[in-house]
Predict the structure.
Amino acid sequence: MPSKPPMRPKQFEQLPPCRANCPSGTDIRGWMTTIAQRKRIGLSDEEAYAAAWRKIVAVNPFPAVMGRVCPHPCESGCNRLEKDGAVAVNQLERFIGDWALERGLQHELLESEPQPESIGVIGAGPAGLSFAYQMARRGYSVTVYERYPKPGGMLRYGIPVYRLPEDILDAEIRRIVDLGVKLKLDTRIGRDVTAKELQARHQVVFLGIGAHKGLQLRVPGEAGPGVWTGTDYLSRINQGERMHLGKRVAVIGGGDTAIDAARAARRGGSEVTLLYRRTRREMPAIDSEIEEALQEGIQLEYLAAPVEILRGDDDLLRSLVVQRMRLGDPDESGRRRPIPIEGSEYEIPVDGVVAAISQQPDWDGLDHLQPHEDGDWVRADDRGQVNHQFWAGGDVLNLGIASAAIYHGRLAAESAHGRLRGQPTPDLHRPDPIETTPAKVDYYSEKARVTPRQLPVEDWLANPEAEIHQAVTEEQFQEEVGRCLSCGQCFGCEHCWMYCAHGCFARLDEIGPGAYFSLALEKCQACGKCIDVCPCGFLQVQATERPA
Amino acid sequence: MAVVGGGPGGSFFSYFLLRMAETVGIEIEIDIYEPRHFTHCGPAGCNHCGGIVSESLVQVLATEGINLPTSVVQRGIDSYVLHMDVGTVRIDTPLQEKRIAAVFRGNGPRDAEAQSESFDRYLQGLAEEKGARVVRKLVSDLAWVDDKPSLTHADGPGAIYDLVAVGVGINSNLLRRLQTSRIGYQPPKTAMTYICEFQLDPETIHHYLGTSMHVFLLDLPRLEFAALIPKGDVVTMCLLGDDIDTELVECFLNSAEVRECFPPDLEPLPKVCNCSPLINVAAAEQPFSDRIVFLGDSGVTRLYKDGIGAAYRTAKAAAVTAVFQGIAADDFRKHFWPVCRKISADNSIGKFVFAFNQLFQKKRFSRRAILRMTAKEQVSDAATRHMSRVLWDLFTGSAPYREVLRNTMRPGFMVHLAWNLMLGMVPRLWRVPGDTR
């Protein structure tokens, strides 16, 4: 056992896992601690909420939307997870988002002077709108071209209303439009405006067309009535079309689109079976959504893949031939590869089939802008730049969650702004997040994670448009915000100050998250106690020797 | 009632108070405020002392029905080895029994692999069994609401209590904050000590240190007392004196007498944990007021030794007062303060004894006299072990300092000391029986 070096402390703010895991890079700890510490730093509830909202919208203009639909990877890394459940970041974001909508909070411009350049955005989805928002805040004149009659992209046409009510989406988009962003709806590139015109009109064009083209199953019998892709089916429903797929519907796929399509079909009155070629463990869909689908009476068939669709003489669907699978070795995604079992085929009777296996960008009418003839996906640098005029982001780069698309939009805006203004582009380096030990987490008293109210299960299908999950109450919100451990940033617990017998710590006059005590090492005896009793890990061992 | 600090003072207070209240049929609720966890290794879960429970305390606790479980005792100590430049002598426990317990106040040194049973945790558990509630919150101030004390935390004001017992030790900054004119409390005067721990395998420790506590009387300025205490796979080193600094620690560690207690090829020594805690060297002023009382180190404790024993005595006195007399300043003055004053008075004698001891350490011939006298006694019959008894009591903290002084005043001690001092001046007679060197 070697001798341990002296343990002199340093105050060192570190990246918390929530922020590290957030595709948008939201300063989650920052906005939560602002609210949690509001009384000590002299903010009223309203001031703290507003400050928190501003921190969120600095990177994500859709807190009320994302607070509902994001699969919240932020929560999966939460250091509180093992103790008594991760902080319910998603619920809290929704509360703050709704609160700001109720109060009519508006976005603020970053630059007061308008910029001379004109910016074009193709696609009013999360990536395009995020880009438009970030450019508009920086003083640019922005025009967004959208092929559909309403803005929102997949947020509107891919997510059912029981998860995301339209008025919420409308309101958060309206706030971006209020910054002066021009929306040209129902406008197709190649039909209503040519790609050439677009390139002449705008100094910078952002490509955020998403991936709206659902992939086909490529099985015999697929062509013809009664077979839909998941995106097409959901898009039609969300545009108000009444779709009844028949008595018995099979949905193929294991992602969120598959679950959404299955639940939509169930709401249409069908008996729904969802077929997935792997097992529940490998399913990419949000776990709670799968759980809710089961509660709605949707049958899940694992290790099953369609091999043929059989039609009757009238060309109507008769049944689906399904082959059993087994799991082999992990593939490049880390999930175990499904392997067909020869001779295991069986038939299930169906009246409709929805294939929600995957999707890709739809270049219809955009041929001139398609960067590669050989592929469907856009290749860009790590800041989203495609060439001197084009930036891209969202699903057109690769399939991802909305939070990633919002990040792409911001990153591209920062990059384009830097390029136009001759300023440095953003640093993409992210340090390793702090992982606190169970011993550290002991310092926080146990407090159960909030359980928001939801509609009774029996009302879900009876009331297909009603939002299932209810918001947390303000009281629950304040309690839950207080569960944030403030990993890697001082929250003024006073342990160091109280336990240092040598007076190295002193209270600061101006306090706030991350700043409660000054540290002077002249009298430090290097016992390291302050480091050990610092619950959030803000105090770390200093590598250098005693100061001269 | 609230108890601030879940160390021995706080736990003893809660335990006795609840026990006595139960006997007389009073219902009392106690919240012990202790944010730290004794299950944590290193200084975070520790209370910064050498971890010796004295012989007399072990006995007194036994009469209270508190028997230290063997899992708490890291090593039973049955003897002291006195190291001086002139030689080494072993002093066995007067009663030939392993009666001193070496314990971990927390959960052992930093990064300790094995989970150790903490002494403080054990006491806290006793208080909890009696019904005390442990609240994992740091108290950072005290406020008064309608003449009742209320505890303040980092995030704002907390609960209001009828009585607050402060047992936060001497290393907490809370004491400085309680120095208000309202209660007239003045925190104790302090000196900085040094404690560190070396991790070695148990066989090595047993080979070099055995089941003895090793005490060093070296002629190093500012060093009053130094000891090595063997525990499971750890050796605890304690240096007491007048503001121990790095230089003095180095000097001590490099002395031949200390190096002999470790394997010769061990360089550097495998230090795994260190701290420089403050100790109470002069009692607090007025460690009580209406509805507030200060236990153990926060108020009055024994000089250098047996802090846990002092915590026990002051905590019990405070508990007795609160249950049977009252919680006003006058009640504490009449029934709690005399116990403190007695300890304080004994400390004055202790200071004199330590000064005397320092004087003896300074001269080579007098060091030889102590060594010779002790060594001779150790091989003779127990009845005449004058010096052994004095040193034993002085180093273990088993007896009040006044008793130590009284023993040095006995004619037998005087005569023998004078004789040995004389012999000490004659180099020819240096060799002493029982010298282990």
